[in-house]
Automatic annotation (TrEMBL):
One of its GO terms (biological process) is L-leucine catabolic process. Pfam families: Carboxyl_trans (PF01039), Fungal_trans (PF04082), Zn_clus (PF00172). It is an enzyme of class 6 (ligase). InterPro entries: AcCoA_carboxyl_beta, ClpP/crotonase-like_dom_sf, COA_CT_C, COA_CT_N, MCCB/AccD1-like, XnlR_reg_dom, Zn2-C6_fun-type_DNA-bd_sf, Zn2Cys6_DnaBD. Pathway: Amino-acid degradation; L-leucine degradation; (S)-3-hydroxy-3-methylglutaryl-CoA from 3-isovaleryl-CoA: step 2/3. This is methylcrotonoyl-CoA carboxylase. CDD domains: fungal_TF_MHR, GAL4. Keywords: Metal-binding, Nucleus, Transferase. PROSITE patterns: COA_CT_CTER, COA_CT_NTER.
Amino acid sequence: MTSRSAFPVTESKVDLRQPHYQRNREEWQPILDKFHAALAQSSIEGDQKSISRHCGRGQLLPRDRISLLLDQDSPFLELGTFAGYGLENSNACANLISGIGSVCGRMCLVLSHIPTQSGGAWNEYTVIKQNRVTEIATENDLPIVALVQSAGVFLPEQFRVFHKGGQIFRDLAVRSQLGQLSCAVVFGSSTAGGAYHPALSDYTIFVQDQAQVFLGGPPLVKMATGEVIEAEELGGAKIHASVTGLADQIATDEFDAIRKARDWVSSLAAPEPALGDAAPLPPRYSAEDVVSLVDPDIRKPFDMGEVLLRIVDDSRVSVFKPSYGRNLITSWAKINGHTVGIVANQTPVINSDEAAKGAQFIRLCNQQDTPVVFMHNVTGFMVGSKAEHAAIIKRGAQLVSAVSCSKVPHISIICGASYGAGNYAMCGRAYKPRFLFSWPTGRCSVMGAEQLSGVMETIERSSAESRGTAIVEEELKAKVGRFRDRVQRDSECYRTSAVGLDDGIIDPRDTRDVLGMCLDVVTKTGVSGAEAHRVLAPPTAEVVRLLNFSTPHPHLHHPTWSNESPSERGRPAATAGTFFRSAAGAHAHRVLRRKKTRCSGEKPICAFCARLGHECRYDDGPLAPPRPAPDVASSDSANLAARVALLESRLSLMDPNSLETLSGPHEDPPPAGGANKFSCLPSVEVLQDAADVYFRHCQNQPYCYFLESTFRQRLHEGSLPSYLLYSFMAVATRFSTHPFFEDHHAEAIESYARLAWSEILEKSFSDDHDVDVSTVQAANMLAVIDFVRGRHRLAWTKIGLSVRFAQSLRLNTEPEPWRSPSEKVERRLTFWSVYLLDKLVSPGRYRPPTLLDGDCTLRLPTLDGTSTDAPTLAFLTDVPESSLLRANDHFALTIFMASVLGQIVRFSFQQTPGSASVPWDSRSEYARIYGILLSFETYSDSASFPTTLEHDFGFGSSVEFSVFGHFCFSQALYHLCHCLLHHPFLLRQRLKLQNSLRVPPTFLGESVRRSKDHATSLAQLLQALQDCGCQAYPSFYGYCAMVAGVIHRLHVVNQGESNARAAKGLYEACLNFLDSNSGPWDHYKRMSLALQSFQPDSSISTGLLSSSFSPDILSSEQTETLWNLVDYGWLSDSARPITPLSTVAALQVTPEEDNISMDYTPDISQGFLDGLEGDEILRHDNIERLLFGAMNGNLDAITELSTA
């Protein structure tokens, strides 16, 4: 389940736009380029000749074997990738690929020899690497699956290999004794040491006609005994299966061998359940920021606290002793759902206080059985008289002792320097951390090269002086220089990783992902450290209280780190040769491989997929950092962009004096007579009355742009822009009873809306005005007015501008920390109101939602306004195991249901192909959406809707209906989504699209029942609101009544309906709701007429409500009419005629005429909206038509202007 940590959220306050952060990022680029080049070189599987010969025998390459062994999309944490890198007498990966991945749902250590390099023979670094990874498997109780094909010891290096190599076989025997099982899959010839590997494994699989295992091959046998024998007869698969008994299974080919290996893993005892949270929250700040925060020059310290905020779950950290020993950060946090203790160097020197603090913290972690993560950037312990007198030796020894005696798992990351005894104190290789990785800037030695060479120079000079010999400065300088270069080379991460002093080099931006997977591994068997440390330091009562994380304690503060709140930048998906997404949703680092993206890049099909007979897949993201977003623009988009650029230049040269009334095709003429008073803002008294009306009738219905107190204060101060006030008045006037408007409400609304829109256009495209949140709020309010009046062309233009402006202001991401609390809340409310409108107007065949949920990384709004603990949409729509929202977070729940509505629109209205699975398949898109809908019930009260209203909101004469607006709206959306997902007509259209000729009757019968039940609940909800005396309803409730009414109308005329009278009553209730509330909303009248005119005959109703499926029960005219009756745009368009279903063909709706195409995206218009230059304000009497054309992809208007 998802668990919100009790650790406090820590905000980052540094401004990453400052020059030195930008410089850091630039200086990291060549370092990362070198890393990726080295990674590619280490991943080579032999020269082309060897590979061709190997594949020519019908054998798979080792990485292909691993890919097939692992589960689909399994993580594979490759270990020791740089073993032997750059060293003599070694090949890439030291002839051995090793790592941890999931096989049949169980984490395993996977080994594979590389037979295309020196026959897979072992060199010195192969042995070091295999001994290390076997140690990892044994410590963490991982089964081993070895893919064997090796020539044994590399004889020219036998002296370096033989003595260490015996440990491989000893470890296999000891593992077997401990009950830690190993499986060897033999793919080819394995001689001498290569033969002992399967012999000492617990289970062996031999590939028929390929696997050959013997201590001495035919040449050695002939030389030693004179016997001449073929390899297959000496030690082939059949011999070992039938004669020696070494082979437990014979596989017909390599694919069969891998399948049998997976079967063996699946037969093992089920692993322990994961200890971490199932859905941990990601950090609030992007991992990409790490390369801006960290200076690649390790001599310059950086703020490690800021780095931790990019690593830990939800950026929540509890700091231990923040004011004591400040050079060492000791804190508790969660990583990938696992609670950990973190010891990190804030500055590179450890003083006496830091040593004491670190020792105590490690003991506390042992008391709580908490793993410890060490982040190295340390040059050692402080020296000098002051440090010595402060007992640095004693305190340092205590820290080293604590690290040595600690029994909980340790994981170390060398971020920069790791020198001298500081390496020991931070759990270097000698102190046996479970995992140890280095960043590309990591360096490890007794001290820095400059310091060490300086010491050596001093020793040389003292030695020469004591001998009485003269010093030749040039020779000494050269000697010291050579020594310094050697130390520099030997201390850098590529060298230490090559000789096995770490488990790999990782991209700094992937630190969280690597740590997350390592913690999944080390916690698999449980964490125990308490017994080991009780003898060292029994905890005091104060310590026991401190460890109770659920209770605030004065020692657990927010850290005093500083860092900017950068916008949450998404990272592109992993590409071929990089890591994958783990089970918790995190990207893995670049040494991991994504199984299904092993394409090597050749098109139309790569060598890998050609060999395996797989479909070739290509990722969009680039391999090398900084990984910019892929360019996916088609030629049509490019042409559109060119024409928009031409339009920009033409518009910028227009006469600024030619501005005329901005009216669309359906605009009413300007009001005359008594309505002329609406051509300017009214008095303060009218404005204040309008504010009362707005916050009583319009706020939370469902849009919520303002904090009432802030808005009223700005209204009093006169600091609200006039276009926002005009828009505000246009919305509030609809429900006003102020005598100022008399009977001219419609004229006032149109006049205020026209003035607001004119001013928005004038200011938004001028050089001296910046678009701000007020612009977004005003444009969105005007879009609602246009849509309900049936002016869809204008409405979509304004929605598009609202979305684009919101994106350019980054409202879809978390607000920056430096903003005031009220500003943060208002930005959040405004964006989600834009999001709501975009989703609510989308039900229709030609109006897909513009905003994608994946681009909305802003946390959902909560009742208290902070949203600190709120999830993002992505977490809610992933059907979490537990509630992520409180039951009273009604605005967030409304947004949640709007997201589901958008998904239903794409599934049911746009009829996108989506999943090939039929709807009754549990893997289908239909089932996925239905599951998300059901998760809404975990937040809602089981009581009836009227009972909940009475109990939770206490209806009475003084209640303000805006208080419960979002509660009602979320419930209405919930039932509407069910009606549309299970709609008798829409679902049959979907089945027809998928050619589903044989549909289970139970499925259809259940879908009809669900649509009827939720249409009933929807009608009862609207009736309950009327009974409670609600005076103002959202415009969208009309569409809800329409959808429910159509479903009930079908049941009224259905011949087999057992309860037609009840259906008729509900149908009439929907009609009554539309008729009773048509005053404020013109489109309610339109829908009422459409519902009354819907008169299907019984054959149509019976066919749609039947449990048997027939694809041809409707004519094309009837189909078109039924489409129109669920199309929100058509229903609200005043230009559409109404025709009864049974008598007249339905009006055709053409996407070219008045609708946004399915491929619409506001990003195409980015240059049009943001890149205008020139000193003149845009002026044109048809500018709305041009804006709509540019955003809709309709180039006719642009062409007319550009060729004029």
